[in-house]
């Protein structure tokens, strides 16, 4: 299950990066902010999963 969550977090990071880049390319600040938020959420989720792994060992 942890692998699923890590993969999901990575996907969210990638999706956020794409949104952020697209927003910058077209000059849409809202899309850029959405992408930045989504990427940060993915970063947090991935960090949480890594912390769980560290305590399991």
Would you mind describing this structure in some detail?
The protein is mainly α. The chain has helices at 2-26, 29-56. Helix 1 packs antiparallel against helix 2. The longest helix is centred in the C-terminal third of the chain and has 28 residues, at 29-56. The mean pLDDT is 92.
Give a quick summary of the entry.
With 57 residues, this protein is mainly alpha-helical. The protein has two helices and no strands.
List the helices and strands and how they pair.
Layout: H1 2-26, H2 29-56
The average pLDDT value, as a whole number, equals: 92
Please mark out the parts with pLDDT under 50 across 5 or more consecutive residues, or reply none. Answer: none
In this structure, how is the largest beta sheet organized?
A: none
Distance between the termini: 16 Å
Tell me the series of helices and strands, N- to C-terminal. Answer: HH
Shape: elongated
What is the CA-atom radius of gyration, in angstroms? 13 Å
Please count the helical segments. Answer: 2
Structural class by helix and strand composition: mainly alpha
Helical content class: over 70%
The count of β-strands is: 0
Beta fraction: under 5%
Q: Which properties best describe this structure?
A:
57 residues, 93% helix, 0% strand, mainly alpha, 2 helices
